[in-house]
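Researcher: Last one for today. Full complex below.
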Amino acid sequence: MRMKAAVLHAQGLPRPYARTQPMRIEEVELAPPGPGEVLIEIAAAGLCHSDLSTIENQRPRPLPIIIGHEGAGIVRALGEGVTGLREGDHVVALFVTSCGECRHCARGRPNICGASFDARAKGTLMSGARRLKRLDGEVVNHNSGLSLFAQFAVVMRDSLVKIEKDIPLEDAALFGCAVMTGAGAILNTARLRPGEEVAVVGLGGVGMSALMAAVAAGATRIIAVDTSQAKLDLAREWGATDCFLAGHADCAVAVREATAGGLDTVIETAGSIPALELAYAITARGGSTISAGLPNVAAKFAYPHAALVSEERSIRGSYMGSCVPRRDIPLLLGLYQSGKLPVDRLKSGFVSLEQINEGFDRLSDGTVLRQILRPNAA
Ligand SMILES: NC(=O)c1ccc[n+]([C@@H]2O[C@H](COP(=O)([O-])OP(=O)(O)OC[C@H]3O[C@@H](n4cnc5c(N)ncnc54)[C@H](O)[C@@H]3O)[C@@H](O)[C@H]2O)c1
Ligand SMILES: [Zn+2]
Ligand SMILES: [Zn+2]
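Model: Here's the assembly. Have a good evening.
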């Protein structure tokens, strides 16, 4: 079938993207779903900083490629052997696909399954297939097995979690990355308990989701840290008890003073080394610094090794909120439906395919949280 899509043809183009147009809106050919694959119509797809990092060439990818990895839609066709889904079902799409066979899958950690890392690096689906082509026949790569900045997508069945039809798809889309990553860092990776204290460094779509999950988990003190005063003001409205402006030398000192030597749990959701350094500096003796931010692939973090040992500190990564999609998406949607995780507030407006490059200018400026692409809206 033919459809409209935003095709990323070059990485690392200068800003403004509204002028340089790293993504071109093109008609492309999408092949029908193969065995184990599903065709979905994209209702909504969020603009995540990881997409911006791909546009900026922080992570080289095979080109041309269709990016977009946070979304929700409607099942339109099933490939051979697909079970548990029917045409017309509403689904959230996540980039976590897994082989089900390796030791990580066996231990309930599908988010770090090696097979899906390989497929992502090659620009294929987990099945090894590529289903996208330009009209002149040139193959177009898949991004994270999803490629949601398009009217339709063919994805693996296990990239999809079925959801109830009364959940607005524009809200459901956020659960595909921002909410799963931020809330998952708090609930799964950190396993935050009622009464505990936490700091979140970096208050974008991911960090604000972490903040809301900390409120839902019953944290008594939630410290919000960002370089933007506007984000701090929002964080306070949404449950942060203390706010600190980052980007100057005294920030870590101020947080350590306010918390009698730092916090047991600090989540970094900014995606930069200065942010991780700050997160580490405000972690208490015996505490954990959990990083969910994704900087340039070559970026390195230095820490005082002797103090890591003598203070029994830990530094952990958190990838897609340490999720098991079919376990966690219904759980988080339940929190949202009961008003305990009001992530619909993360939406900063809607864009069409034609406006997507400008959308990434705004994300890069830091003036928005989650903009939602509606590729099929009239
Ligand atoms: N671990 C994962 O699975 C996963 C999933 C999604 C996104 N990410 C990554 O998470 C990060 C955040 O994504 P997002 O979409 O929320 O981004 P965003 O651009 O919406 O938000 C980033 C926030 O960090 C703040 N910030 C920047 N530098 C800072 C500093 N030095 N100190 C404090 N705050 C600082 C910015 O002001 C902004 O509010 C990105 O690096 C993204 O690639 C990781
Ligand atoms: Zn993302
Ligand atoms: Zn596996």
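The two ends are 19 Å apart (CA to CA). Residues 98-99, 101-102, 104-105, 113, 115 surround zinc ion (ligand 3) (CB under 6 Å).
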